[in-house]
Amino acid sequence: MAQKSHETLTLIEEITRLDGSKYLEISNMVQNGRAELAAERNLIKQVRILQLNIPHSVHVINYENYINQRYTMPDENLQEFEEWKKTPAMEQEVAQILKENHIG
Prior knowledge:
Shape: globular
Distance between the termini: 36 Å
Radius of gyration: 13 Å
Number of helices: 3
Number of strands: 3
Strand order of the largest sheet: 2-1-3
Strand content: 15-25%
């Protein structure tokens, strides 16, 4: 089993799925690079950074812990782009992060 990640989330990005729908994700530069690679491989349509260097608030820490416990950072050989599924509680954390950063 792959080791879980220990990522520090530092940015907000907008990901456009292949069907054209979009969602916002709290991420970091490494994961953003993987999303760019996924776009080049036509696994997603596009990714764009909306805000860099977001404050490391309690909401970011809560979401970061959730992501790190459940997901591993994909390597450069990725064949699919895994969208991070959120519980209702984590949806609320993300909503707070977006509000704190005046996005949405």
